[in-house]
Amino acid sequence: MIIEANNLTKTYKNKIALNDISFSLEEPKIYGLLGRNGAGKTTFMQVLAGLLLPTNGSVLVNGQTPFDNQKITESICLIKEGDNFKKDLKVKNVLTIASMFYPTWDNQLAFQLIDEFSLDLNVKVKTLSKGMESALGIIVGLASKAPITMFDEPYIGLDASARNRFYEVLVEQYQEHKRTIIFSTHLIDEVSLLFEEVLIFEGGKLIVKDDTDELRESCFSVSGPVAKVEAYIANKKVVNKQEFAGMLTATVLNANKQAAREQGFDVEGVPIQKLMIYLTSKQGGGVK
Ligand SMILES: Nc1ncnc2c1ncn2[C@@H]1O[C@H](COP(=O)(O)OP(=O)(O)OP(=O)(O)O)[C@@H](O)[C@H]1O
After folding, report:
1. Which parts of the sequence belong to the ABC transporter domain (predicted)?
2. pLDDT of 189-238, one tens digit each?
3. Could you give the number of structural domains in the chain?
4. Burial bucket for residue 30 (CB in 10 Å: 0-12, 13-18, 19+)
């Protein structure tokens, strides 16, 4: 399914959560949706899921608006940080309701994962621990097999090994059944290897939308004597600079790693987590 945001704006009273953004997402792909607190990630996912109406502009899925449009929303599964299910429902009721809503539902996968994450089908959501409730959300997200599946920080309370298993199953399932997965997380180092494309939001704007491999190739740090590095970065996008003992390390965006090596610089890759911090930090962040 093709997702298109056109001049998308969402304001809450006088707060601008999404500020006139336009982009499109293709399938199948795993997107990492990144940004600092309050950048607009959740708002974007809620508009895409048809839970919120934009203030201006639109998000279209295959040319249609998701709001109040079951034909589209049954193709979209959004798993939030919490409160995904009514507290009085039993786990088995949650699965039944999801199986009725999503035409693509995979019951066998749901039960396999229930077993794997050791959830009891007969207990109510309100008696689940935080981690177990997150596991239930993850199970519904994976078993929905919805053509657009979104996970918005879905792992509150899940321990590291359960999170790891979630990432493994996500990749296995994606290989078997490719679709659009949008994954918002602050644990970037943990998951960034899964992302095929990275979207970075900042202050309601989309500031980076790039293929992850290309980003890894075109964003790097160069180190060397100050004057030499300054000359190299003069016409480049610089996201961070650090000087120490006559040596300068500069992180550049949209540059050519090989060419930098050929000019004799020490070149080092920049993890996506670090890039996001450089681009969005209030202290001297952003592209210069
Ligand atoms: N219901 C609401 N009422 C008023 N303001 C809101 C509401 N929901 C979000 N906002 C504001 O909109 C902006 C974007 O919030 P949003 O939750 O989309 O950000 P986010 O990137 O998901 O943040 P986080 O990483 O903290 O979850 C923030 O300034 C937030 O305070």
Report:
1. 3-228
2. 999 999 999 999 999 999 999 999 999 999 999 999 999 999 999 999 99
3. 2
4. buried
Quick check: CB of 137 below 6 Å from ligand 1?
no
Prior bond of 28 cis (ω within 30°): yes
The reply to whether 83 falls in a domain is yes
Distance 150 CA to ligand 1 centre (A): 17
What whole-number distance in Å separates Cα of residue 201 and Cα of residue 39?
6
SS3 for 229? helix
Which residue has its alpha carbon closest to ligand 1 atom 27?
37
Q: CATH no. for residue 119? A: 3.40.50.300
Q: How far apart are CA 193 and CA 176, in angstroms?
A: 18
DSSP SS3 for 37: coil
- Is the N-terminal amide bond of 66 cis, ω within 30° of 0? no
Note down the domain range covering 247.
220-269
Examine the domain organization and report whether 143 and 247 are in the same domain: no
Atom of ligand 1 nearest to the CA of 10: 12
Full-model pTM: 0.94
Torsion angles phi and psi, residue 44, rounded to 5? -60, -45
